[in-house]
Structures are given as structure tokens and as C-alpha cells.
Amino acid sequence: MLELRPNCECCDADLPPASPQAIICSFECTFCRTCAEERLGWTCPNCGGNLVERPIRPAVTLEKYPPSTKRVLKDGGCGQGAAA
pLDDT at residue 79 above 90? Predict the structure, then answer.
């Protein structure tokens, strides 16, 4: 099951479970759409894999399967021009 991480690893933007702005790789590294497109070129800086839109978990299942509350930030930002 996906962790549904709460933030962008580059800029720390909030990404709630139903956010269409949440973008992930196959290892669940999580980024906002702006960072994925403008900073990362749709490639994960951690594993080199492609980035895709994160699926939305139906609201009725969030209580039983809650999203992660652990914020993850990439050390040193995400490439050239990344937020510190």
C-alpha cells in the first residue's frame, strides 16, 4: 500500500492525500507537480525512475489506511535551482 507521503521532497509543499499535484516514482519518492516538471524533468533524483501522478486513495478508506505523517526532504534540495 502506498504511504501517501505528506509533502514534496524538494520544496516541502503540502500534498494532502487527495492532491492531484502529488507526483511519485516506483519507490514512492514524492514531489509536487511544479518540482517534477520544472526542476526534475519528470525523473526521480533519487532512483532515476520516471515520475507519475500519485493515485488518490478514496476518502472512505483513509481512516482504516491513513496517509503517512512523516515529512521527507531531500538533502541538498533537488538539483539545479531547487529550494533549500
Answer: no
Q: Which residue has the cell 478514496?
A: 58
* CB contact at 8 A, 39 and 33: no
Question: What confidence tens digit (pLDDT) does each residue in 32-61 have?
Answer: 999 999 999 999 999 999 999 999 999 999
The backbone torsions φ and ψ at residue 54, rounded to the nearest 5 degrees and listed phi first, read -75, 135
Q: Give CA torsion, residues 7, 74, 11, 4, to 10 deg.
A: -10
- Kind plus residue range of the DSSP H or E element containing 30: strand 30-32
DSSP3 helix / strand / coil % (the chain, rounded to 5): 10, 15, 75
- Summarised one tens digit per residue, pLDDT across range 3-17 is 999 999 999 999 999
Contact predicate 32/8, CB 8 Å: yes
